[in-house]
Amino acid sequence: MPQLPFKDKGPCEVVWDYAGTPLNLSPFLGTVSLRTTDGISTVEEEGYGTTPVDAVFTGTNVELEIPMARSTLAQLKTLLAGVESGEHGNIFKAKAGCDMYTNAKQVVIKPMCDNIPSTTESEWILLYKCYPYRDFDLQFDRDSQRIHMVKFLVFVNLDSGYEGRLYQYGVAP
After folding, report:
1. Could you say which of 57, 93, 119, 156 is the most buried, measured as most Cβ atoms within 10 Å of its Cβ?
2. Are the beta carbons of 13 and 114 closer than 8 angstroms?
3. Distance CA 45, CA 51 (A)
4. Which tens digits make up the pLDDT trace of 23-68?
5. How far is CA 40 from CA 11, 33, 59, 154, in A?
6. Which residue ranges make up each domain of the chain?
7. β-pair partners for 37
8. Residue 26 and residue 127: Cα distance in Å, rounded?
């Protein structure tokens, strides 16, 4: 039966800054989600009311969500802008006015089998330019496990020879 190169089901490993100083973001609890959404602007004619007679693509938005469970302070400090070492642990500071693309890095998603990441590069997903931001709600109660939900904006690649690319299935050896 046909299947996607990265398998039909199962967990994954996510590596931030794959081409530089790789950082494994495991373990996770919940769904690691790569979401692609095409923006569309409809073209209308008065005689047809709000029924589109055509449409135009206005861009593509890609976002990666990673529910990091049992994260280490070192992972969070390396991954998240605005986190600094304090006297007794990490300090989370406010962020404003800083661009993200300049510090964007590659992310690789590798499917796993029996808690072992795939070594078959054709099964991996490569995201060219990603930058993480914070979006977590730490819960303190009897039954909830605390998760650092880290989201990544995926930017269009502006590097020569890669213009317009967002991500690809399969990584060349």
Report:
1. 156
2. no
3. 8
4. 999 899 999 999 999 999 999 999 999 999 999 999 999 999 999 9
5. 32, 22, 8, 19
6. 12-169
7. 61
8. 17
